[in-house]
Design a protein that fits this description.
Blueprint: E1 2-6, H1 11-22, E2 26-31, E3 43-47, H2 53-63, E4 67-70, H3 77-82, H4 84-105, E5 113-120, E6 130-132, H5 143-161, E7 164-171, E8 174-175, E9 177-178, E10 181-182, H6 189-197, E11 204-207, E12 213-214, E13 217-218, H7 219-232, E14 253-257, E15 263-264, H8 265-276, E16 282-285, E17 294-296, H9 299-305, H10 314-322
Parallel strand pairs: 1-2, 1-4, 2-3, 4-5, 5-7, 6-17, 7-14, 8-13, 11-16
Antiparallel strand pairs: 9-10, 12-15
């Protein structure tokens, strides 16, 4: 299968491209530039910006992709509040341009182009607790989440017409590293814990007593979820297969990507100290009004695609990011 991975040099996108190459697919990675990141061996770099409608149309028309993993996007909730238009421009506008290009190019052979869209658990909002199911209606609280919901709906509408076959993957906390490329986002706890261990930060700030529970999935396991979704996505993965979360809004098949296994912040810090052999300095801040426990319910992905996370033990996640 010939596949385009948008955002293919990002933390998750590069891992997805690597997984697809390893599975024997012909892979192009679309990126605005390299930023010092090399494509995985066997993948070709295609320079382009999803906001550039003419460029995206030319790439899709010329290369005639069987499948597209769409990961290009802006991903920080707080930044989206300060600059909401940029988030809609990239996350929704970029998806509009990509789908327009696919429609203009037409299907490859007898099957519609397969699209796997990277969404986020942020679409569920912060006022829920426990294991989150795809049947919950979206409740985004910032332009980042809202732009992702809008893109999910747009993809669902196109899937319902039969122009594409589509799956949306709502990723929870993605961590770890592959080929030496780790998540460096300073808004996330694992990168900050390791920065504190290295002495790049004076301490890690923890809200409350550290008993809050979250889950973390290794980027290798997330990449395998994209591959399985791409390879399984066929004519049946249309709006007719919509979940309760979005059936009324035209959202196609939606799946959570997460382990469903929560760990407390205290456990995470203790694991980092054990794996690195170094102390993690911690500053405790007053607790924030946020859910105590927030994890995914990944049973749908596991049942329908046979996905099993094999790298998401916390020791392996932190060890790979540390090394």
């Amino acid at each position: 299968m010939r596949v385009l991975v948008t955002g293919g040099l990002g933390f998750i996108g590069r891992a997805v491209a690597r997984e697809l190459v390893s599975a024997g697919h012909r892979v192009d990675v679309l990126s605005r530039g390299t930023g010092g990141v090399e494509p995985p061996a066997g993948a070709d770099l295609v320079e382009g910006d999803v906001r550039d409608r003419d460029r995206i149309a030319a790439v899709v028309a010329d290369r005639r992709y069987d499948g597209i993993c769409h990961l290009a996007g802006l991903i920080r909730g707080r930044d989206s509040i300060a600059d909401p238009l940029s988030y809609y421009d990239v996350n929704l506008g970029g998806t509009v341009n990509l789908l327009a290009a696919v429609k203009a190019a037409g299907p490859v052979g007898q099957r519609p182009v397969r699209v796997v869209f990277a969404s986020t658990s942020i679409v569920y909002g912060s006022q829920r607790t426990g294991a989150l199911s795809e049947d919950l209606p979206p409740a985004p609280e910032n332009p980042y989440g809202a732009s992702k919901v809008a893109a999910e709906q747009l993809i669902g509408y196109h899937a319902a017409t039969g122009e594409i076959s589509a799956v949306t993957l709502r990723c929870f906390n993605v961590a770890g590293a592959v080929d030496g490329y780790a998540d460096t986002d300073p808004t996330r706890i694992i990168p900050n814990v390791l920065r504190a261990v290295r002495g790049e930060l004076p301490h890690v700030s923890v809200n409350g007593d550290g008993s809050a529970v979250r889950e973390f999935t290794h980027v290798l396991d997330v990449a395998s979820a994209f591959r399985l979704a791409l390879e399984a996505t066929g004519a049946g993965a249309t709006g007719a297969k919509a979940t309760g979360a979005g059936a009324g809004a035209g959202v196609g098949a939606v799946y959570n990507v997460g382990t469903g296994r929560g760990v407390s912040v205290r456990e995470l810090i203790a694991t980092a100290e054990r794996v690195t052999g170094r102390r993690v300095p911690v500053e405790h801040l007053p607790p924030k009004p946020e859910p105590h426990t927030l994890v995914s319910d990944p049973r749908r992905l596991m049942t329908e695609f046979g996905w099993v996370p094999t790298h998401s033990d916390l020791d392996e996640i932190i060890g790979s990011a540390w090394s």
